[in-house]
Amino acid sequence: MARRGSFARKEASQTLLKVFKTAVEWDSWGQIEEAHKAYKDLCQRIMNIQNEANLDVRPEEVEALKDLLACFKVRILEIKNDKNHGLGLSGIQGLEAFVNTLLVATDPGPFPIDISAISKDLVSSSELSTFTDRLSRHGSFDTTSMKHTSLSRKGDILISLHISKMGFKDVSTFADPTLTISIVDSNGVIIEQPDEIKATEISEPFHVVFNREVVFNTPMRLIENNFGFFFEFKHFKAKKKKVSTKAWCFLEQDEIQGESGKEICLEIYKKPTDFTRKTFNLLSVKPLYLHIRVDMIRV
Which of 108, 130, 203, 238 could form a Cys-Cys staple with 207, CB 3.0–4.6 A? Predict the structure, then answer.
């Protein structure tokens, strides 16, 4: 499953899953008071998830979070009344996989429970509507203004990449070439993905020229040793009327080694992009590379 998000998304997802597992554990042990408190904590975290985690919540995520909120509130009533209202412990346990992927998956899939069949007259519809309206209204953050400040603090070091040019055997067929750059952890989870950059020129026959700077919002202290940087070259295919990934490159975190001004040439691999880093097939036997420079910025 392709995964997405920022460091904040991953952190919020892990926190939500941790509290969820705690609640289910107390519930399965019959510890009513502890389970009741943990489910209330889950509800509160969902209600405040946008303000606390600064997440850019997508419309489909708003609906899923609303359904999760309804499920937890129903389970609270079931525990309180010692009565099954159609959900039960087994229903809650069946939500774990969905909770685990909701904030970090490109498509976590449909909600696993028909919430309309169990929540009617049990959960305040006005409360759920208010929750939906609040997240929908404030679901878009100005990422440009947050780019250098939301995760960093004084003294942190940010990584700046100067993307120079990328070599191909023949560049004449490329229309609207772009480069998408991502920080990805060892599990293939995208930690950060800035706006894609567009080519400034095509220098036939061998190079697509970018000459663009990309500064990551995630500071070095949060970039673990097993994280990597991915570069996906994309272009528009007129016949198929879609944007297609042509090739990709990969930079290991330890190749940077905290050196500023370091020039690096990266091998170019055939599509599809493998965020798990298991398959690397060269696009060409010719010595064609992506040319970049790594700089360190102290904030």
Answer: 203
